[in-house]
Amino acid sequence: HHHNSRRYDNGRGRSPMTKLIQCPCGVVIEGRDDEDVVQRAQEHARQVHQMELSREQALGMARPA
Q1: Residue 55, Cβ neighbours under 10 Å: how many?
Q2: How far apart are CA 36 and CA 5, in angstroms?
Q3: CB contact at 8 A, 48 and 25
Q4: Strand (E) or helix (H) holding 3
Q5: Model-level pTM?
Q6: Is 29 exposed, middle or buried (0-12, 13-18, 19+ CB in 10 A)?
Q7: List of residues 6+ apart from 59 with CB closer than 8 A
Q8: What tens digit of pLDDT does each residue of 3-61 get?
Q9: CA nearest 56: which of 41, 44, 26?
Q10: DSSP string, 22-64
Q11: Is there a contact between 44 and 27 (Cβ–Cβ < 8 Å)?
């Protein structure tokens, strides 16, 4: 058996781990991964709601897309 056939499912590289955060105001924020969606959510909270969203709060709201 050819044991050099590469399997790409070990979680490395560009596996899209898309995340969603639904703001209570109804806006849905989407990101490539935790970091991305957290940053977008924080920016949304600042710009739209004039409030600071912590990383923990954002992650608590995030769910797989």
Answers
A1: 13
A2: 32
A3: yes
A4: none
A5: 0.73
A6: buried
A7: 34, 38
A8: 555 555 555 555 578 999 999 999 999 999 999 999 999 999 999 999 999 999 999 99
A9: 41
A10: E-TTS-EEEESSHHHHHHHHHHHHHHHH-----HHHHHHHEEE
A11: yes
